[in-house]
Automatic annotation (TrEMBL), chain A:
InterPro entries for this protein: ABC_MlaD (IPR030970), Mce/MlaD (IPR003399), MlaD_Phospholipid_Transporter (IPR052336)
Record has Transcription as a keyword: no
Keywords from the named record: Membrane, Transmembrane, Transmembrane helix
Domain Mce/MlaD: 40-118
Positions of transmembrane segments: 7-27
Keyword Membrane: yes
Designated name of the protein: Outer membrane lipid asymmetry maintenance protein MlaD
Organism taxonomic ancestry: Bacteria, Pseudomonadati, Pseudomonadota, Gammaproteobacteria, Chromatiales
Pfam families assigned to the protein according to its UniProt record, in alphabetical order: MlaD
Gene of this entry: mlaD
Automatic annotation (TrEMBL), chain C:
Record's subunit section: The complex is composed of two ATP-binding proteins (MlaF), two transmembrane proteins (MlaE), two cytoplasmic solute-binding proteins (MlaB) and six periplasmic solute-binding proteins (MlaD).
Protein name: Intermembrane phospholipid transport system permease protein MlaE
Name of the gene encoding the protein in the UniProt record: mlaE
Organism superkingdom: Bacteria
NCBIfam families named among the record's database cross-references: MlaE family lipid ABC transporter permease subunit, perm_MlaE_1
Annotated source species: Marichromatium bheemlicum
Segments passing through the bilayer: 48-70, 168-187, 199-219, 239-258
Length: 155, 298, 260
């Protein structure tokens, strides 16, 4: 039954290689450390325009990722975008007067939310809303504004 | 074709006075005596009717040969008896149980009491001879490895291939493969064993070995044997009872001596191997001259 | 006759439907027979060997080259937009979401699926399946079920190996040959790839492909006409139907997973 044993060893090696590959995909390729974010707490923020912000986009503070966008909804009464954020529970002292911006990574990159901490002693807790927001920079608008100001400056 | 005996004649009635065969004297009650009883069997495959009101009885302890020209559905008959196919009409009873009415579990229970020897042997090609014979034992029993080994070696000894136990099926000759398959078929000590064309393509020596083996097995372990064949000489040598079937019906039946004395032209043509007679050499078609002059199709 | 083509069309339509029905019957019988695998894990090991271990070489080598080509082509396009740093993301996303499961399934259909069909078809042609049945052993449970579950188990692991080797191949070409920054290669990838959204969805895809490819292969073998021509036709059909089913299902699954 040496042959049976060889087969078992090879199958074991194959399964091990498969699981190592899966582990590699989970850890190295998609960085599992931030995936257990389901337990994080929720904050909402209202924006006049979120540009092309999508669910799962990163939420950063000082350039470091601290959470993800969970959902982007539309409020049909206020005509505003309501963005739900999931924040890492370890980051538990975000001041009340924090500023939320929709930024673009690079000129054409994906959009993300950057939080700019304020100085208030009160902290945001689960379910709170971030009051100060800054809408996305829309490239077309920026170009339009630039040309307009250029034109008016010349004239 | 002119059958000497109409298909309506009940074969069992005539079989009563058959006295040939070793177990001939033990036939007291007609009901218990019959292990497989087929009544009014009709089976169609597509447009073709293979059996058309077939009646057939197989007696316990006897070797029954079912003979007929190629294409008369002899193998189909075995498949019907083992429940691999279901009849369109009629009854097939094995030991009083209607095979075609059983559910899968009951059918599998019944099959443990049957052994079948396929024309090709049907050995599992990725197992060696020993494991092939051990297969049904491992599947259906909880024997200890040492007991299993003894049993398998005994079965292989019975077919004279104990020395070939380590060979693979691809290393066996046709006759040896068939003997291994026979050892496997008798591994679970069945009550009935079905042979599908056991003599086809065998050289005279292995043919002789098989003939005596079938007879010995039948008599030594009180088996019931059904043998489907078109090899007239071998089948008449070992059979206690012979059925000749053609066109879906029993054309003639009886002991080998009775069949030998049969005067019907069809029976004589088949038994004596005449090329033309009631069964024509030519497959039915238009006359040769008309066919040759026809330039149209093919 | 004028109506002959219509009748032929109807007959082949009915044939297709009947085969479809037989295929689903077989799948149901195999799923119901799952207990056999639990009772005899040794049967499963042999089949994981047949599908998994024997396909590992072709899957690994293909993954390596696909990853390397992706990096070359991707770099060419991304560099024009000054986004060469996103190369890692592009390679990983293409592999984990699409190419890993799909190409692996196609390779397995060609390598292991055709072998399964030929094996089962030959067992049928040589009456081995009928022989098992007459030994009161159900060939579906004894022969087909372990093969099905062996294929289903091996497929996601093979796809993971394909993707992982592919990412490494992409890294080798992108960072080693084309000079993309190694840090950016990994960090861009890690920032945008998600375990549930990408890796788990990829695994789900390859599980589905595993079921479909092995099922088609087993059914074609089990349903073939038991002649040499029949077995060879069935083997071809396994590869063709298997590939079509994988590509078609990939579209449906992608639409369901990433379309919303």
């Amino acid at each position: 039954m040496a042959k049976q044993r060889n087969i078992e060893i090879l199958v074991g090696a194959f399964m091990a290689a498969g699981f190592v590959a899966l582990f590699f995909l989970a850890m190295q390729v998609s960085n599992l450390s931030l995936a257990g974010m389901d337990e994080g707490y929720r904050l909402t923020a209202r924006f006049a325009n979120v540009g092309s912000l999508k669910a799962r986009a990163p939420v950063t503070m000082a350039g470091v990722r601290i959470g993800r966008v969970e959902a982007v909804d539309f409020d049909p009464r206020a005509f505003e975008a309501v963005v739900t954020l999931r924040i890492d529970p370890a980051v538990d002292s975000i001041p009340m007067d924090t500023f939320a911006n929709v930024f673009t990574s690079g000129l054409l990159g994906e959009q993300y939310i950057a939080l700019d901490p304020g100085g208030s002693p009160d902290v945001l807790v689960d379910g709170d809303e971030i009051m100060h927001t800054q809408s996305a920079m829309i490239l077309e608008q920026m170009i339009g504004q630039f040309l307009f100001s250029k034109a008016s400056g010349d004239g | 074709m002119m059958p000497s005996q109409g298909p309506g004649d009940a074969p069992g009635v005539r079989g009563e006075d058959v006295s040939a065969g070793p177990s001939g004297g033990a036939r007291a009650s007609a009901t218990d005596d019959v292990l497989v009883r087929i009544r009014d069997l009709t089976f169609r495959r597509g447009e073709r009717t293979i059996f058309d009101g077939l009646d057939l009885d197989i007696r316990r302890g006897a070797v029954t040969a079912v003979m007929g020209p190629s294409g008369t559905g002899k193998t189909t008959l075995l498949k019907l008896i083992t429940g691999q196919l279901r009849p369109d009409a009629g009854r097939i009873e094995v030991d009083g149980v209607a095979v075609h009415e059983l559910d899968k579990a009951a059918l599998y229970r019944l099959r443990r009491r049957m052994g079948m020897l396929f024309q090709s042997g049907a050995l599992l090609t990725d197992l060696n001879v020993f494991d092939n014979v051990a297969y049904p034992l491992r599947e259906h029993t909880d024997l200890s490895p040492s007991l299993l080994r003894k049993l398998v070696l005994l079965k292989l000894e019975a077919v004279g291939l104990r020395g070939a136990r380590a060979l693979r099926p691809s290393e066996l000759s046709g006759g040896m493969a068939r003997r291994v398959a026979l050892a496997r078929a008798i591994a679970l000590d069945p009550e009935i064993i079905l042979y599908d064309e056991p003599f086809t393509g065998q050289d005279p020596i292995s043919m002789g070995a098989l003939v005596s083996l079938i007879r010995q097995l039948n008599d030594a372990s009180n088996l019931t044997s059904v043998l489907v064949s078109h090899d007239v000489a071998e089948a008449t040598r070992i059979a206690d009872h012979i059925y000749l079937i053609s066109q879906g019906r029993v054309v003639a039946q009886g002991s080998p001596t009775e069949i030998a004395a049969e005067r019907s032209t069809w029976v004589r043509q088949f038994m004596d191997g005449q090329p033309d007679g009631p069964v024509h050499f030519h497959y039915p078609g238009p006359a040769l001259a008309a066919d040759l002059l026809n330039r149209g199709g093919r | 006759m004028l109506l002959d083509p219509l009748a032929r069309l109807g007959r082949s339509g009915l044939d297709v439907l009947a085969r479809f029905g037989r295929g689903h019957q077989l799948l149901l019988a195999m799923v119901l027979g799952v207990g056999e695998v639990l009772r005899r894990p040794r049967l499963l090991i042999a089949q994981v060997y047949n599908v998994g271990v024997l396909s590992m070489l072709i899957v690994g080598v293909s993954g390596l080259f696909v990853g390397m080509v992706l990096a070359l082509q991707g770099h060419y396009v991304l560099a024009r937009f000054g986004a060469a740093e996103s190369l890692g993301l592009m390679v990983a996303a293409s592999l984990v979401r699409e190419l890993g499961p799909v190409v692996t399934a196609l390779l397995v259909a060609g390598r292991a699926g055709s072998a399964l069909t030929a094996e089962i078809g030959l067992m049928k042609a040589t009456e081995q399946l009928a022989g098992l049945e007459l030994m009161a052993v159900d060939p579906v449970r004894r022969i087909l079920v372990p093969r099905l579950f062996g294929g289903v188990l091996a497929m996601p692991l093979l796809a993971a190996i394909f993707s992982a080797v592919g990412v490494l191949g992409g890294y080798f070409v992108g960072v080693g040959l084309l000079g993309v920054d190694a840090g950016a290669f990994w960090s861009q990838m890690q920032a945008a790839m998600d375990v549930r959204e990408d890796v788990v969805n990829g695994v789900i895809k390859s599980l589905v492909f595993g079921v479909v490819v092995t099922w088609i292969a087993l059914f074609q073998g089990y349903d073939c006409s038991p002649t040499s021509a029949g077995v060879s036709r069935a083997t071809t059909r396994t590869v063709v139907h298997g590939a079509l089913a994988v590509l078609g299902l990939d579209f449906v699954l992608t639409a369901l997973m990433f379309g919303g």
